[in-house]
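A favour, since you know our structure tokens better than I do. Just paste the record in under my message, thanks.
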Amino acid sequence: MNTKDYTTSFTMDQSPEEVFDAISNVRRWWSEEIDGDTDRLGAEFRFHHKDQHRSTQKITEFVPGKRVVWHVVDGQINFVKDKTEWDGTDIVFEIIRKGDQTELRFTHVGLVPMIECYGGCSGAWGIYVGQSLRKLITTGNGDPARKE
């Protein structure tokens, strides 16, 4: 049984604090359709994308310049059979200083190849974390999903 969680990482010249600040500004890289606070421990925020996906994340770790963890409290993914595949999963951002550079390691714990949404969801994370968040960190402008 393969239980490999989806993960991606990249390195950039920005400081750990700049990376942390960008991660916390979820509306500028994931979606403009975020309701709730995204920048403090214990906060909950809601994401939704059209009629395809909605989820509620609770910030369970918030260590400036080092680590952010969101716990998915509730979700509904309408393009797969089990609409609750994200429930109970954790979305983890680890920030590691490496010499003059900073590595961002992203892992969605529980998003594994054996679940139906893995292909679509990992592809979306590739776009939103690997491209939009990276662009926000390096240029100051992300490319989030726009409000409908």
